[in-house]
């Protein structure tokens, strides 16, 4: 457990995705079975450790520490698990060996509520400070290291010459501690059998199209459809050799998200694999992304939520029909099979993503600019651009260049004032590269700036140097790695911020949250007093 | 004699009324006893300074030869009598040359610890508990949450990261006197024999450690070195330099920081540290408690740090204890970034 804890500790400070993958890969490479497998299970969320409430942890330390010293320490550290982990007394007769992760996993599966505290105390006696921190965080369900299941699987794949998608393919048939998976990836075992009757197929992705690309493309070779602003899903169903029917909904990275969308299970009344967009549809109208967002990332799905946010699949491709793999067929042939299937299903939960007719690129330019009058009608708010697909394109995994293009609508922009800047990490650790910006609103004593977002990309290396120099020059306050910079009506820096959309948010003082904000331009020429107002953004929400 | 007649707090620092001298005064005084060379304890401008030879040498390196009107070196264990007070110095285990000050008059013994640690450190003489009636202790890490792990294990954490990211530069923030050289010694002991690059502010002090018989291996200046050499290398710099424009020469660096404060995650986060190394030159909580008990003292005075927790702990052990609320002591090197080429340690 101490080694796994050291990995979690290191990852908790590491912001970079690739660095996290390498840290995990190093751990998997140097840790034996079955310990690494249980670690993989913990990282992918396949195991739940959350067995204890903070009260249990507090009670344990109160039996062992001076209450005055505990309160002083807690006050200083500010986190219960961390305080307890650090001040847990050392025993003269400490256990001879630290508990293994596997022992803890087995222990937790057999403990009752009344025996848990005693056992937890024994484990804590055997661990070091970092080990105790990790165990307490895991067991109270508060571990945050910013690694998704996909990232952990990518790290496993990097141990050998296997792609992350291949790991996804075999994953549903596996269980902790994944010994056969490690053996296969490391080249000393066969590929694990997938007995999964509803496996994920790696999805096909599109490149963003540039103005210059159009000259080389013949409109007659392509078909177009709306790019829907939902989440990409793959609906798969099939019957196993045991006669049991499986229905699964996968995210575009192959994560099984079926449990979050039980309202779609009955609608997936076919054998095969369908590619489409998950959307919220109310009274026949597709809702914009910020409505869908309210249903995402929920641990439990309530009946109320199912009724208020009905899930829907807008289908655009068919990869497998019954037993038949269609992926090698041209797009038009797959599309015909898809149309037939959707018609046969005649489900209120699944419909077809309509094609956008166009004769030349000018037509499509107009459609993209005004989707409402080009066929999207009342659904136009959920359109984030158009997809352009070659009529003869097979369904290829990954992001091949040429067959599929995405052409997003122009982003929204706002002129905002730089308020705070934070130092970056790694390459950017000597640069102020994370910017919090605000817009004007009426305060009690005249106009004040209210922060509306944070952006840390979009600028060039040259612009980064200029902003960094400005931040150092214009600092009026320091809070650790954060600097507050001057932001008056006549003094400060205006940033043109591009973003994809807005959502209401109770977590932000301004009441709004930006999607995908980035710095589009530096407006040295513009006095901060002329930057935009909060009302301008609020108008976008209506 | 009451303890207060032998030693008492004053606005300029700890003062001995009987001996008419100060210990680690924060302002210029006629006669000063200096426990160690860190800038918050050793200041320039006193008329007369008594300290270990090494502390005097380090002060000369940092402030220039004329840092005091006159100086007097005193070896560990030797004694001098100042105005009837018997004064001797004893190893504090904090940094090279660091000493505890033992004062004795009319059978009353007071020991001023200065900063100290009871953990092993190959770059200085080990801490010696000195029996006394009153022990004057620091409490920098005077909370039970500060438990420093073995320094060798933290060093291994750094070297493991160097192995996993062999193309990146690990910049280790470390105070320029003591911590920096200890990190070098720890890395050498762990078998890391590649060149270690240092910020200009560290060069003179590190060279001095060399003259005192410490083999720190191949130490090279960052300045003037080809950028390509930094890939996979460890660079040691004062903490303030890590976020300075100085650090831009390193490709994709990993920011490390060697300090006891790194034990608390919020502190490490606040500084933007990516690889915290819990290596401290101060005693941790267990070390403070054990060292205080080892002196057999009847009374504990606490100078600076988390005084309240240590005073509370002492009182639960029927030990008279009081905080002195001294100001002006803390971490050195915390603020202004030293520039390469400037006199190391010179006041900004």
UniProtKB/TrEMBL annotation, chain A:
EC identifiers of the protein: 6.5.1.1
Database matches in CDD domains: Adenylation_DNA_ligase_Bac1 (cd07897), OBF_DNA_ligase_Arch_LigB (cd07972)
Listed SUPFAM superfamilies: DNA ligase/mRNA capping enzyme, catalytic domain, Nucleic acid-binding proteins
Enzyme class: ligase
Biological process according to GO: cell division; DNA recombination; DNA repair; DNA replication
Pfam family, one: DNA_ligase_A_M
Lineage top rank: taxon: Bacteria
Keyword Metal-binding: yes
Any GO molecular function: DNA binding
Classification via Gene3D superfamilies: DNA ligase, ATP-dependent, N-terminal domain, DNA ligase/mRNA capping enzyme, Nucleic acid-binding proteins
UniProt keyword terms in alphabetical order: ATP-binding, Cell cycle, Cell division, DNA damage, DNA recombination, DNA repair, DNA replication, Ligase, Magnesium, Metal-binding, Nucleotide-binding
ATP-dependent DNA ligase family profile domain span: 304-441
Transmembrane feature ranges: none
Catalytic activity: ATP + (deoxyribonucleotide)n-3'-hydroxyl + 5'-phospho-(deoxyribonucleotide)m = (deoxyribonucleotide)n+m + AMP + diphosphate
Entry protein name: DNA ligase (ATP)
UniProtKB/TrEMBL annotation, chain B:
Database matches in InterPro entries: MBL (IPR050698), RibonucZ/Hydroxyglut_hydro (IPR036866), Xnuc_lig_assoc (IPR026360)
Family annotation (SUPFAM superfamilies): Metallo-hydrolase/oxidoreductase
Listed name of the protein: Ligase-associated DNA damage response exonuclease
Keywords: Exonuclease, Hydrolase, Ligase, Nuclease
GO terms of molecular function: exonuclease activity; ligase activity; RNA endonuclease activity
Top-level division of the source organism's lineage: Bacteria
Record-annotated membrane-spanning stretches: none
Enzyme class: hydrolase
Coiled coil: none
Species of origin: Xanthobacter autotrophicus
Enzyme Commission number: 3.1.-.-
Gene3D superfamilies noted in UniProt: Ribonuclease Z/Hydroxyacylglutathione hydrolase-like (3.60.15.10)
């Amino acid at each position: 457990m101490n080694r796994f804890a050291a990995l979690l500790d290191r990852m908790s400070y590491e912001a970079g995705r690739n660095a996290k993958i390498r840290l995990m890969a190093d751990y998997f490479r140097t840790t034996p079975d079955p310990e690494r497998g249980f670690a993989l299970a913990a990282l992918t969320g396949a195991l739940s450790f959350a067995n204890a409430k903070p009260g249990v942890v507090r009670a344990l330390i109160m039996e062992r520490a001076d209450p005055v010293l505990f309160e002083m320490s807690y006050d200083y550290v500010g986190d219960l698990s961390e305080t307890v982990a650090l001040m847990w007394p050392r025993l003269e007769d400490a256990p001879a060996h630290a508990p293994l992760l596997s022992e803890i996993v087995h222990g937790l599966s057999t403990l009752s509520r009344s025996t848990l505290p005693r056992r937890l105390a024994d484990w804590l006696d055997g661990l070091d400070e970092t080990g105790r921190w990790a165990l307490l965080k895991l067991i109270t369900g508060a571990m945050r290291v910013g690694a998704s299941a996909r990232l952990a699987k990518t790290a496993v794949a990097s141990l050998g010459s296997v792609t992350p998608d291949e790991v996804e393919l075999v994953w549903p048939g596996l269980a902790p501690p994944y010994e056969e998976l490690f053996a296969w990836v490391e080249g000393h075992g066969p590929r694990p059998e997938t007995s999964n009757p509803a496996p994920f197929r790696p999805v096909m992705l599109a490149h963003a199209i540039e103005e210059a690309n159009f000259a080389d493309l013949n409109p007659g070779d392509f078909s177009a459809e709306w790019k829907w602003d939902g989440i990409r899903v793959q609906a798969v169903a099939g019957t196993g050799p045991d006669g049991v029917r499986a229905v699964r909904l996968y995210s575009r990275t192959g994560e099984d998200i079926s449990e979050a969308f039980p309202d779609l299970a009955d609608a997936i009344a076919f054998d095969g694999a369908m590619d489409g967009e998950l959307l919220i549809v109310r009274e026949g109208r597709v809702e914009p992304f910020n409505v869908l967002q309210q249903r995402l990332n929920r641990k439990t799905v309530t009946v109320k939520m199912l009724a208020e946010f009905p899930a829907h699949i807008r289908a655009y491709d068919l990869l497998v029909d019954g037993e038949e793999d269609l992926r090698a067929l041209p797009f038009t042939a797959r599309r015909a099979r898809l149309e037939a299937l959707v018609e046969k299903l005649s489900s209120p939960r699944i419909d077809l993503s309509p094609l956008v007719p166009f004769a030349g690129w000018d037509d499509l330019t107009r459609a993209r600019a005004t989707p409402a009058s080009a066929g999207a009608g009342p659904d136009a708010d959920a359109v984030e651009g158009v997809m352009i697909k070659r009529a003869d394109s097979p369904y290829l995994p990954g992001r091949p260049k040429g067959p599929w293009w995405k052409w997003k609508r122009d982003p929204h922009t706002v002129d905002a004032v730089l308020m705070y800047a934070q130092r970056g990490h790694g390459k950017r650790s000597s640069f102020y590269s994370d910017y919090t910006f605000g817009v004007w609103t009426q305060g009690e004593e005249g106009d004040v700036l209210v922060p509306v977002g944070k952006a840390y990309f979009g600028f060039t290396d040259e612009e980064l140097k200029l902003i960094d120099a400005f931040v150092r020059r214009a600092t009026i306050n320091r809070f650790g790695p954060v600097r507050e910079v001057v932001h008056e009506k006549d003094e400060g820096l205006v940033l043109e911020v591009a973003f994809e959309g807005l959502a209401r948010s109770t977590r932000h003082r301004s009441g709004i949250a930006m999607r995908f904000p980035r710095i589009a331009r530096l407006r040295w020429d513009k006095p901060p007093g002329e930057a935009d107002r909060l009302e301008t953004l609020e108008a976008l929400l209506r | 004699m009451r303890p207060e007649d032998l030693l008492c707090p004053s606005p300029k620092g700890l003062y001995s009324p009987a001996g008419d001298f100060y210990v680690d005064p924060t302002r210029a005084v006629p006669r000063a006893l200096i426990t160690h060379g860190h800038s918050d304890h050793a200041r320039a401008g006193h008329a007369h300074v008594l300290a270990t030879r090494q502390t005097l040498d380090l002060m000369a390196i940092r402030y220039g030869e004329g840092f005091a009107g006159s100086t007097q070196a005193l070896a560990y264990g030797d004694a001098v009598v100042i105005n009837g007070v018997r004064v001797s110095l004893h190893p504090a285990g904090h940094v090279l040359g660091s000493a505890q000050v033992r004062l004795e008059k009319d059978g009353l013994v007071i020991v001023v610890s200065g900063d100290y640690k009871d953990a092993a450190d190959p770059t200085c003489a080990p801490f010696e508990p000195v029996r006394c009636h009153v022990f004057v202790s620091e409490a920098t890490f005077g909370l039970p949450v500060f438990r420093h792990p073995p320094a060798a294990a933290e060093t291994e954490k750094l070297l493991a990261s160097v192995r996993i990211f062999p193309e990146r530069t690990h910049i280790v923030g470390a105070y320029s006197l003591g911590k920096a050289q200890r990190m070098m010694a720890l890395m050498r002991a762990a078998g890391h024999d590649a060149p270690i690059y240092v910020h200009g502010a560290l060069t003179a002090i590190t060279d001095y450690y060399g003259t005192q018989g410490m083999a720190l291996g191949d130490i090279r200046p960052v300045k003037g070195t080809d950028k390509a050499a930094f890939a996979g290398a460890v660079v040691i710099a004062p903490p303030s330099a890590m976020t300075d424009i100085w650090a831009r020469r390193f490709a994709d660096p990993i920011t490390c920081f060697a300090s006891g404060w790194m034990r608390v995650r919020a502190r490490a986060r606040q500084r933007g540290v990516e690889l915290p190394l819990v290596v401290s030159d101060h005693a941790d909580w267990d070390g403070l408690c054990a060292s205080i008990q080892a002196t057999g003292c009847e009374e504990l005075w606490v100078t600076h740090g988390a005084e309240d927790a240590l005073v509370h702990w002492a009182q639960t052990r029927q030990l008279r204890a009081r905080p002195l609320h001294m100001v002006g002591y803390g971490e050195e090197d915390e603020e202004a970034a030293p520039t390469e080429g400037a006199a190391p340690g010179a006041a900004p």
